[in-house]
């Protein structure tokens, strides 16, 4: 069994904000797989689909971002999900807008939702997909930035990031985190100089 968790804040006022990009990936994937993510359990909303011979549980915590660990640890413990089968999707200000990166493990960085999950699980050894939102301007308020919405010019980049993250989830379930990283974490080479 696989547990795929998108992070965000519940409530219409948070729809479309940078901090809710994890929820957007879950919404996109659930629509693509033809399932609803509506079952209330373990401080979250869940939905199940079967693919590649696996049961895949999609989840959106309903605790607000800073307490995401309550939901994630609850689901991991209830369903006995091994750490390598957990995948968390979240926004990252340290990546360029629209960049998508899969990692096998790592620290929470500046992300309070990830900090909560690591604290509740007692480990940072689980895969994650980071989606870049870019950084706020020098001196701008970080909370205001992550709870803000994308500029119109950024929307195509973010739509592409959501579909790319969903593609990464399919690779992750079907072939494992290493292949998913190889498929998704491709950096464009800088243009070669003519000199």
In short:
Its EC number is 3.1.1.29. The chain has 195 residues and is an alpha/beta fold.
Please, could you describe this protein's structure?
It contains six helices and seven strands, in the order βαβββαββαβααα. The protein has helices spanning 21-33, 68-79, 112-121, 142-146, 155-175, 177-184, and strands at residues 2-6, 39-41, 44-51, 54-61, 86-92, 100-103, 128-132. The chain has a seven-stranded mixed β-sheet, sandwiched between helices. α1 packs across α5. The chain is globular and about 45 Å long.
Summary tags:
alpha/beta; Rossmann fold; 195 residues; seven-stranded mixed β-sheet; disordered C terminus
Shape, principal axes of CA atoms: globular
> Class by helix and strand content?
alpha/beta
Mean pLDDT: 92
Pick out the low-confidence regions.
188-195
- Strand order in space, largest sheet: 2-3-4-1-5-7-6
Highest CATH level, the class: Alpha Beta
Instruction: Write the element-wise H/E pattern from the N-terminal end onward.
Output: EHEEEHEEHEHHH
Number of helices: 6
How many beta-strand segments?
A: 7
Under CATH, the homologous superfamily reads Peptidyl-tRNA hydrolase
Largest sheet composition: 7 strands, mixed
**Named CATH topology:** Rossmann fold
């Amino acid at each position: 069994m696989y547990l795929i968790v998108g992070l965000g804040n519940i409530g219409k006022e948070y729809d479309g904000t940078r901090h809710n990009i994890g929820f957007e990936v879950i919404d996109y994937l659930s629509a693509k797989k033809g399932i609803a993510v509506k079952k209330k359990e373990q401080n979250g909303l869940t939905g199940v689909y079967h693919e590649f011979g696996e049961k895949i549980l999609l989840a959106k915590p309903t605790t607000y971002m800073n307490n995401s660990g309550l939901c994630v640890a609850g689901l991991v413990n209830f369903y006995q999900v091994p750490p390598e089968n957990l995948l968390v999707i979240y926004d990252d200000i340290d990546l360029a807008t629209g960049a998508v990166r899969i990692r096998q493990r790592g620290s929470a960085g500046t992300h309070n939702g990830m900090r909560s999950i690591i604290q509740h699980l007692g480990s940072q050894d689980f895969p994650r997909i980071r989606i870049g939102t870019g950084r706020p301007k020098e001196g701008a308020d970080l909370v205001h930035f992550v709870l803000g919405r994308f500029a119109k010019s950024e929307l195509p980049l973010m739509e592409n990031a959501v579909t790319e993250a969903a593609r990464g989830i399919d690779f992750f379930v079907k072939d494992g985190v290493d292949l998913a990283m190889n498929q998704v974490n491709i950096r464009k080479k800088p243009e070669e100089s003519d000199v």
